[in-house]
Each structure stands twice: as C-alpha cells, then as structure tokens.
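Running co-folding for guanosine-5'-diphosphate-alpha-D-mannose.
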Amino acid sequence: MTKPANDVKDALHAPEKSPRTLSIVVPTFREADNVPALAERIAAALSGTGIDWELLLVDDDSGDGSEDVVAGLARRLPVRMVVRRDAPRDLSLAVIEGIRLARFDNLVVMDADLSHPPERIADMLAALDSGCEMVIGSRYVPGGAVDQSWSLYRVLNSRLATWMARPLVRCADPMSGFFATRRGALPDLRTLRPMGYKIALELIVRGRLRVREVPIDFRDRSAGSSKMNWRQQLRFLRHLSRLYNYKFGTLARVPFFGAVGASGLVVDLAFYLGLQWAGIEHRLARFLSFWPAVGWNWALNRGFTFSERARQPHLGQLARFTASSLAGLGINVGSYALLTSYVGFFDRHRLLAFFCGIGLGSLLNFLVADRYVYGRPSDAGR
Ligand code: GDD
Ligand code: MN
C-alpha cells in the first residue's frame, strides 16, 4: 500500500508525535464471554507505551450480563459500557454513538471477539501520524491474512464485497472493522447514513479520507457467535447503492438497474419453462411469465437501485413500473422490427438488432423508472 510518492510527501511533513491519548470504541452485542479477554489484551498491548487509553463498549442491550462483566473489569481497567436501549440494533450506529461519546480525539474502532489483534494498535497509531486520516488494519495487504479456517465461500464472499466497493475507495480492505482515526478528520457525524457493518467504508467515502493500511492477521472468534447473516448482506448492498448514488449520482444506478434486469430475465425464463412443464401452451406461458418477472424487477429496484428514495405506496408504484416495463417492451420489439425491416445491415445481423432492442427498451424503462416510478431523490436519503 505504501506508495513511493506518499513516502516522499510524508517525509516533507515534520513527523508528529505519536498520540498520547486513545479511545478504543467497540460495538458489542452478546459479547460477555469475550470482553474480559479483550480488555486484558488491550491493557497488555498498550502497557509501557505511555498512552492514556479508555475502552468504550457500545452495547445494543445484549441482556447477557455484559454490564456486570464490565462493572467488574472497571475496578482495575479504564473500561466502560454505554447501552443503547431505544435505538434500532445496528453495528454502524453503535460505532457512531461511540465516536460521539469517546473521551479522546484519537480513536480506534475494533470488534470485541478478538478477531482484531490489539497488538497492532500501536503500529496503527504510529501510521496515523504520517499524513493520513484513517489507518485500516488490513487483511489484504502484504503481510496480512485471514483465518486459515475460512471456507472458500467466505473468502469469495469477502473478495466480491471488496471488489464491488472498488469504484468508491482505493484501499485494499475497506470492509475491515478495525481502524484508527482522529475525530477532527471525520465528517459531521449527523451527515452519515450508514447501515449494517461497513462503517469504515461510510467514513472513507463521505469524509473523503486519505487512508493507509497496516497488515493484520484476522482470527476467527473463539467465543460467542457472529451476527453476520444474509440480512446483513442485503443491507450491505443497499448501503453500497446509497454510497454509489452519493458519489456518482443517477448514473450510478445504471449498473444496479442492469443487474436487476438480468436477474429478471432468469425469473422470466424460469416461469416460461416451468409453466410449459406444467402443461401450459407455449404462447400462453410466454405471456404469463412476463408478470412475475416485472414484479421481481420492481421489488429489487425498490429495495436496491432506488433504495434511498422516499418510500411510496406499493401498489401505485408497481402499476407505474409495469406500465413502464410494457412501454420498454414495446420499444424493444418495435425497434427490432424497424431495424430489421429498414436497415439492411441489421437484417443481416439480426442478433445485433435483438440486443439493440433490449438496450433501447431498458434505457426507456430506466429513465421512466428514475423520473416517474420511484419518486424524486430525497435529500435526507442520500
Ligand atoms: N452494538 C452492536 N450492535 N454491536 C454489534 C451488532 C449490533 O447490532 N452486531 C454486531 N456487533 C458487534 C459484535 O459484537 C462484534 O464486536 C462486532 O460488532 C463484529 O460483529 P461479528 O458478528 O463478530 O462480525 P463478523 O466477524 O461477521 O464481521 C467482522 O468482520 C468483517 C470482515 O470479515 C466485522 O469486523 C465486519 O465489520 C467486517 O466487515
Ligand atoms: Mn467477528
């Protein structure tokens, strides 16, 4: 990650002193079994560094005895817990709350389950001095690693998520939950709109933060259980669509809209074949399979492509989307007919005409969806 150009630039800055104070913000949900070991390892890792630190746990009302555990620890160590009782349970929102309540301006955010080695904190703080606004504990720079026990599925999943965020950020591991930063470098916390797990990504994109990475060895938790699930993965896609929209505007929706359209084609095909398999005549099957596909596309575009738009009543919106899809279909088939009838080139290359039709139909569909189906962008939603 260290680029030569950066090194030259950094060398010109007089090196600041390593931070002397530090708030470590840790979101927790049902981590009573992990908190004592976490606090001990942090204390051991920072002893002798001269850093005045606190460990601030932001808990979403776990009800698993975490508070008592922390009360016990607090007699010997600078540990405290705040409990969010009336807020929706959310990792990112817990972290933002922690950043707001932290005693010190130098911040480290990490997980409670010891996946993130506290022994790396000192190096991350040192790197924070050298002209950047965030230091990520990174699994994907040379020297970094993920747990040996990760399944191929988890490896691919993690890589895919990182790849999907590529256009938003330059660093190798923006999905990491382990980072150091300074409060003064962050954007106004009230302008953040994160959802789910990827709080670092949110801060980097909206705060336009300059990032450095230091390698870490990511270990799987040994106690308690992960709260990552398919719901969180869906929330990640919505978060991503929000950030794309923030950074690139309406243009950013085109790939989402295209991906939804492609998945709708699969639904269309499945019904077309399935209905025939059930004994329905092929032309009727063709006619019927269109509708579930349209419903599918409408729902996904509502949930992802246009997820940050103000919510509108389902039925009216579905009706408008269906009308727009029918118009798109008309343009699709109509332009195919025109091109192959009047342009010799397309008559000789009909497959090209076929794809032109799809392209034109989808474009119309997109423009209508953007303007008339999903409402206007609400500022609050971006
Ligand atoms: N307050 C609060 N509220 N804390 C939560 C919540 C919540 O809703 N959900 C999870 N946490 C806490 C957990 O208690 C833990 O301390 C930390 O957030 C991470 O949760 P895990 O459930 O252990 O997440 P993970 O191991 O699947 O994911 C971690 O690794 C990913 C990379 O593979 C996180 O660091 C992710 O941010 C990271 O992307
Ligand atoms: Mn974990």
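Result summary
The chain has two domains: 9-246, 249-381.
Residues 26-29, 31, 58-60, 89-91, 94, 111-113, 115, 158, 175, 177, 197, 221, 226-228 surround guanosine-5'-diphosphate-alpha-D-mannose (ligand 1) (CB under 6 Å).
Job closed.
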